[in-house]
Amino acid sequence: MIDGEAIEAIESKEELRPNFVLLAGGSAVIALASAMFLPWPFAIASTLLGTLMIAGADVDARTYLLPDAVTLGAAALGIAAAPLLDVFAPYSHNANTYDAWLALSAALARALGVAIVLELLRRCYARIRQREGLGFGDVKLGAAIGAWLPLDVIPMCFALAAGAALVTVMAAHLRGQPIEGATKLPFGAFLCPALWLVFYASALLG
Question: Cβ atoms within 10 A of the Cβ of 159, count?
């Protein structure tokens, strides 16, 4: 016989699973858009990243949680893909070959840098306001953002997500929903699509 805590644990795991129909349909659209307009390394990377971001946005919108499989998985994938995607990385002087280690190091440094900045922001907000304003899942998602995006477009990703969140809050307020300072907002649900959109646009514009 399964006790109450076990049932709750099973239900919690079920909630952290993305909607299969949404995931399959969204991934197909992203794969098609990527294959049509991006060169093959970027098309494959865009499809994988987009699939993870759909899953993350769906789960966070429903549960206010970002699964590690999405956040840490995307960060690891971005770092691993860096040698194929960083077209501006320098070449070695010996044989004019691609310096993969430098690309990996740069992606890792960006990932750690963005995560550290978000963690400091998270702690400062919690200390000042005495409540959590940014979840740790968002910090780990920040690492993925740093791994995937060039340094100069990382602020654009956060600006896009913040703008979309602000529009959502304003629309909810106009519909009569109560909006207060402590109202929870699944920011990861906005950061996830923003990451893919900025990556796709950066790859498309070259």
Answer: 13
For 56-95, how does the pLDDT look when each residue is reduced to its tens digit (9 = 90+)? Answer: 999 999 999 999 999 999 999 999 999 888 754 444 444 3
Can you give the three-state secondary structure of the chain, one letter per residue? CCCHHHHHHHHHHHHCCCCHHHHHHHHHHHHHHHHHHCCHHHHHHHHHHHHHHHHHHHHHHHHCCCCHHHHHHHHHHHHHHHHHHCCCCCECCCCCCECHHHHHHHHHHHHHHHHHHHHHHHHHHHHHHCCCCCCHHHHHHHHHHHHHCCHHHHHHHHHHHHHHHHHHHHHHHHCCCCCCCCCCCCCHHHHHHHHHHHHHHHHHHC
Q: Single out the residue of 16, 133, 110, 6 nearest to residue 70, CA to CA.
A: 16
Q: How many CB atoms lie within 10 A of CB 124?
A: 12
The values of phi and psi at residue 138, to 5°, are: -65, -35
Does this model's pTM top 0.70? My answer is yes
Instruction: Provide the domain limits for residue 152.
Output: 4-205
